[in-house]
Amino acid sequence: MVTNVMVVGVGGQGSLLASKLLGHVVMTKGYDVKVSEVHGMSQRGGSVVTYVRFGEKVYSPVIDKGEADYIISFETLEAARYLEFLKPGGRVIVNAQEIDPMPVITGAATYPEGLLDKMKETGAQVDAMDALDIACEAGSPKATNIVLMGRFSKYFDGITEEEWMKSLEACVPAKFLELNKKAFQLGRDN
Amino acid sequence: MSRKAGYAMKELMLGNKAFARGLYEAGVSVASSYPGTPSTEVTEEVAKFDEVYTEWAPNEKVAMEVAFGASLAGKRSFCGMKHVGMNVAADPLFTVAYTGVNAGMVICVADDAGMHSSQNEQDSRHYAVSAKIPMLEPSDSSEALNFAKQAYEISEKFDTPVIMKMCTRVAHSQSLVETSERVLPEVKTYEKDIAKYVMMPGNAIKRHPIVEKRMDDLRAFAETTDLNRIDEGSDNAMGFITSSTSYQYVKEVFGDKYPVLKLGLVHPIPANKIKAFSEKVDKLVVVEELDPVFEEQIKAMGIEVSGKDILPILGEFSQSLLTEKFGLEKKDTCSALEGLPIRPPVMCAGCPHRGMFYTLKKNKCTVLGDIGCYTLGAVAPLSTIEMTLCMGASVSSIHGFNKALGSESEGKTVAVIGDSTFMHSGMTGLANIAYNQSNSTVVILDNSITGMTGHQQNPTTGFNIKGDPAGKIDLEALCKAMGFNRVRVVDPYDLAEADKVVKEELAANEPSVIISRRPCALLKYVKHKPSLHVDRDNCKSCRACMQIGCPAISFKEGKAWVDNTLCVGCGVCQQLCHFDALLTPENEPKTVLLPPDKAVIL
Fold first, then answer.
1. Which of A25, A74, B41, B337 could cross-link to A167 by cystine, CB 3.0-4.6 Å?
2. How far is CA A118 from the centre of its chain?
3. A102 or B359: whose pLDDT is higher?
4. DSSP state of B37
């Protein structure tokens, strides 16, 4: 049995750190784990996706359509974009922030309205939050990724808060640790 | 949640980092590479070990020759590159096969099926075949670490360089590894051996049979090495031959049902083992991304085999692709939402390239481009770059373009190339312009770093791979020494000055170089101005600020709006606004533009 988690967003939002954190914490729980990242050109403000898979034995490093148990999205449109990857009835944890992609900025397209409702209509369990505001409350908008990971952590009874915090210590540079711990806590409690 | 014993001692490690760990454990002394996605982190990670001398070379050919020199001297060496980098290094590659090595030499080449960050998806296995060099191909991080160590043993045992082929999904996936200590190899000394190392015809003609004999020895080795293994199955109706990440997809879809011959040594492949395997299964299928390299060799052995009749030659594989192609039941999915706008990559807010592209577009230039972040100058709304081929091609092709069209193109055509790409292979093209005198204008987009691959130093930055001070090549002096009389430096944030300089250099009746200099906005040492904000009363909704495609500016409720989490206050948009609607926060000075000769570091 493999659990599949996709972390999606806009290049530069910190999806690599979020997936690293998840990969680390499940590794400490004794699972086989694979985390697949994309580097290079698509990181420049494009749509980015990372895959985290864990279980007794993991072969493929990627998650395909219909396989994701969870999608953690740092941006609303990006959650909608990858919805097809979700298992029927799977859960989406989404930052309600909207970032205009270039075709919207140039006026060639419009940002779709009512995406959260449309996602719910497909049967997905949608958990939306203003993670950016909470990150600012924690001290920096850059901690949006960790706020969402805090929220996501609520869905895993088997991993204690202390274990998540230990993995944060292992994954985050010391000078940003307190900020990220606060962001995680606020995301988890919110 | 359950806990499986044994895993707790392992580390989760990126494929490229695991490869670097393997290099370290194998006792490598010298590493020289040029960055290129998805290969870059191997070298970045090995640079973290003080025991390994590591450097960024100006290009892959230089890197491979540095590695050869170190091997010749008796130290284990490494060079790394992406698939297209191997094209640049192909010259030494084909002949280092003839000389062989002294201490072990391993070459990393990282393919990018699916073109996540590349201009083509060539299959590097062809190089192993045509250069007659053994090639290993790991399928996860653990193998990347262990194969790196085995590669040095093969290199020294068979007196040959060894290529280790990575791919995006192995290079950029983290999986569990077990590390061990660094073990220094047996000490080798340099010994003069003209017949082995001087490849002039009389010597090379004697080395070629040695290369062929070595391939025979390696073919025998391929039959017995544990790099190639069979995973037994419960049903012999079908059997797979595969390698790398394709192996993972086969196991993901079929589990232990069918037997799998997994190749870790992918050149040369084991003929007898393959024949024996084919005899025990009813249907033999090769699962390989990109070209039918195994399939064609197996067919040439007279063995009936399927491959590209089932699976595509294009792009990456995945478990769902195999599911579909083998006619298995598809998984149910959530319904897709249709009609969503795409989100292509864009130049960052504050990117210094933006001002220059705006200027070139305004002057209606034909822009021949090159490889780097600035290739995004081809994307709307700037849509300025009209050609991108390979590293350095902008500078060489503008010469051909202008020679072909003469005065028809000379006054309105420019080549744009980044500082790192210029050092990689723009210099030789510039030498050709200086020598054969085309009236060409070359813009060096000097953002003082190798941007696209994630901020690697290069010969113009003044720092080495460890961030320590290093030699710094003076671009102005270099261009002048080549014979360019007109070398101008301009700050691309200053649109009026950039426009003036571009106009003057296009009008000049001799070749010229414009150095558009401003460090990458993402560099840690670059101090940003506070975000601008919009005065909604002043904004006349003219959209002049939207022409530059800045991701920080969009339109909200009919007026311009600045995203203060993205804006770095570069001030380029302010210069386009005729109505003072884009404001710097009070008590902050307007963006100060630096005089050209000072426009180096903020």
1. A25
2. 20
3. B359
4. T
Contact yes or no for A44 and B347 at CB 8 A: yes
pLDDT band at residue B1, thresholds of 50, 70 and 90?
A: very low
Average model confidence (pLDDT) for chain A? 93
Helix H or strand E encompassing B360: helix B353-362
A102/B380 Cβ within 8 A: yes
Q: Give the tokens for residue B166.
A: 């990575």
* Residue B57 structure tokens: 């070379």
Report pLDDT for A44: 73
Confidence at residue B602, expressed as pLDDT on a 0 to 100 scale: 28
- The ipTM assigned to this model is 0.94
Q: How far is A190 from chain B (nearest CA, A)?
A: 23
Residue pair A183/A176 in contact (Cβ under 8 Å)? The answer is: no
Asked whether the beta carbons of B411 and B388 are under 8 A apart, the reply is: no
Q: Which residues in chain A touch residue B335, judged by CB atoms under 8 angstroms apart?
A: 83-84, 122
Mean pLDDT, chain B, rounded, equals 94
Summarised one tens digit per residue, pLDDT across range B164-190 is 999 999 999 999 999 999 999 999 999
Point out which residues pair with B77 in neighbouring strands. Answer: B30, B105
Please give, rounded to a whole number of angstroms, the shortest distance from the CA of B250 to a CA of chain A.
9
Phi and psi for B357 in degrees, rounded to 5? Answer: -65, -40
What are φ and ψ of residue A140, in 5° steps?
-160, 135
Beta carbons within 8 Å of B322's beta carbon, 6+ residues apart: B249, B250, B252, B253, B287, B311, B328
Closest chain A C-alpha to B347 CA, distance in angstroms: 6
Per the CB < 8 A criterion, the answer to whether B154 and B162 are in contact is yes
Please name the member of B173, B336, B551 whose beta carbon is closest to the beta carbon of A45.
Answer: B551
| Number of Cβ within a 10 Å radius of residue B139 | 26
- Nearest-neighbour CA in chain B from A177: distance (Å): 19
The answer, for A100 touching chain B at a CB cutoff of 8 Å, is: yes
Are B261 and B273 in contact by the 8 Å Cβ rule? The answer is yes
Q: What is the pLDDT of residue B331?
A: 86
Mutual orientation of helices A161-171 and A174-189 as an angle, nearest 10°?
150
End-to-end CA distance of chain B: 52
Q: Do A37 and B172 touch (CB under 8 A)?
A: yes
Token pair recorded at residue A49: 């996706």
Mark which residues 36-75 of A lie under 8 Å from B by CB.
36-47, 56, 58-62, 64-67
User: Would you call B424 helix, strand, or coil by DSSP?
Assistant: helix
Taking each helix axis as running N to C, give the angle between helix B141-158 and helix B201-224, from 0 to 180 degrees, rounded to the nearest 10: 130
A104-108, A157-161, B136-140: segment of lowest average pLDDT: A104-108
Q: pLDDT digit string (tens) for B4-49?
A: 444 446 899 999 999 999 999 999 999 999 999 999 999 999 999 9
At a CB cut-off of 8 Å and minimum separation 6, what does B477 contact?
none
Gap between the Cα atoms of B81 and B117, Å rounded: 13
Cα–Cα distance, B438 to B511 (Å, whole number): 6
pLDDT of residue A41: 62
Domains of chain B (ranges; CATH) run 10-224 (3.40.50.970), 229-325 (3.40.50.920), 353-517 (3.40.50.970), 531-584 (3.30.70.20)
- Asked if A29 has any chain B CB less than 8 Å from its own CB, the reply is yes
Q: Biggest alpha carbon distance in chain B?
A: 82
Contact A91, A15 (CB under 8 A): no
- What's the whole-number mean pLDDT along residues B103-110? 98
Name chain B contacts of A6, Cβ cutoff 8 Å: none
CATH code (residue A22)? 3.40.920.10
- Asked if residue B590 has pLDDT above 70, the reply is no
Domain residues for A61?
Answer: 2-189
CA distances from B363 to B379, B435, B501, B572 (A): 18, 28, 11, 17
Q: Provide the CA B366 distance to its chain's centre, in angstroms.
A: 26
On chain A, the residues whose CB falls within 8 A of the CB of B170 are 61
Of A42, A107, A123, the CB nearest to B116: A42
